[in-house]
Write a structure and sequence with these properties.
The protein is mainly α and 82 residues long. It contains 4 helices and 2 strands; from the N terminus they run ββαααα. A two-stranded antiparallel sheet has the order 1-2. Strand 1 and strand 2 form a beta hairpin. Helix 1 runs antiparallel to helix 2 and helix 2 packs across helix 4. The two termini are 34 Å apart.
């Protein structure tokens, strides 16, 4: 949202696709296979032919797993330091 000099709202921006992806992540955050299936079901991002390609699904599952594992490690390390 943008504001003018008097702090009045000028513009509200929404992104329905980002909202959909976030909804999938919040619902399936602890089940990587279901998270990948949810993401691949968003045809605006992944074409059906790509979503059906087993090597792509395998790589996406791997890299999302690595990302979430590293995020968990980073949060754990931060909590041990403070």
């Amino acid at each position: 949202m943008g504001f003018d000099a008097k702090r009045r709202a000028l513009l509200e921006v929404s992104d329905p696709l980002a909202a959909r992806l976030l909804e999938i992540r919040l619902q399936q955050w602890d089940h990587i296979d279901e998270l990948v299936a949810g993401y691949l079901g968003v045809s605006q991002v992944f074409a059906p032919s790509l979503a059906a390609h087993p090597i792509f699904v395998q790589r996406l599952t791997y890299w999302l797993g690595v990302y979430f594992w590293l995020t968990a490690c980073r949060l754990l390390c931060k909590s041990m330091i403070t």
